[in-house]
Amino acid sequence: MTPRLIWTRRIAQLLVGLFLYGIAIAMMVRAGIGVAPWDVLTQGLNRQTGISFGLLTVIIGAVVLLLWIPIRQKPGVGTVLNVLLIGPAADVGLAVIPQQHEPVLQGLLFVAGLALLAVATGLYIGARLGPGPRDGLMTGIHQRWGWKLWIVRTGIEVTVLTVGWLLGGQVGIGTLAFALLVGPMVGVTLPLLTVPLPRVGASPAAPAAEAAAAPESAAAPEVAPESAGEVTA
Predict the structure, then answer these.
(1) CA 108, CA 126: separation in Å to the nearest integer?
(2) Lowest mean pLDDT among 5-14, 188-197, 211-220
(3) CA–CA separation, 119 and 189 (whole Å)
(4) What is the rounded distance in angstroms from the CA atom of residue 230 to the CA atom of residue 137?
(5) Cα Dmax for the chain
(6) HSE on the CB side for 167, CA within 13 Å?
């Protein structure tokens, strides 16, 4: 593939991945058996403020992105689009997917949402255009102060989970399933969907752009998505 085609694929893959990520979040929310830690926080704020789930996803992502400033992280185009697009996609999904109440249907919808989220994560991270804001916050703290990555991730996610639960967000078996399964599942989808970097016939400017994007996207799989986010929005 030529550098132009590779960049076209990267942009298309990023946009499709972010849209599907929002739909996957909506599926897990409508399953009603618990959601990812950051989505628990979003649910809690939704119940307290009445602001739509999608808009709150955007607001939280923007606030997290501001926290990149003191840790000296630089967002990629994928990071900015992550903040802007996942929330509206989640609102679309919530508008068309009915709330489930039967245990079998709840389980099936959650599993389908989690599988879709793993694919969506592979698509948007595999585009190599920057990590989600939450993943970047974790890796940025790790790089800035040298704290172990698992400690940073655990500390942040336990904090947002606790705050979200206290605000009325839903914690359940789905929350535990997400924590245990999303990493291994993304470990399968990401290698399959990562866009290869051009090796032959690339323009002089392309390698520099690739090199700038690669460290960001390479860091994201270590922390897995926040889901909307973010695994990993």
Answers:
(1) 27
(2) 211-220
(3) 6
(4) 11
(5) 57
(6) 21
- Compute the distance between CA of residue 189 and CA of residue 88 in angstroms, rounded to an integer: 24
Judge whether 133 and 79 are in contact, CB under 8 Å: yes
CA neighbor of 57 nearest in space, from 123, 132, 128, 2: 132
Type of residue numbered 66: L
Cβ burial of 211 (10 Å; 0-12, 13-18, 19+) is exposed
Report the C-alpha gap between 192 and 199 in whole angstroms: 18
How far apart CA 117 and CA 212 sit, in angstroms, is 26
Give the strand pairing for 226-227 and 230-231: antiparallel
How big is the chain, counted in residues?
233
Mean pLDDT of 182-208: 74
Assigned token pair, 206? 């392309």
**pTM for the model:** 0.84
3-state secondary structure of 230: strand
Token couple for 66: 């501001």
Q: For the chain, how many helices (H) and strands (E)?
A: 9, 2
What residues contact 166, with CB distance under 8 A and at least 6 apart? 44
Distance CA 162, CA 140 (A): 22
Task: Return the C-alpha torsion angle 200, 2, 116, 142, nearest 10.
Answer: 50
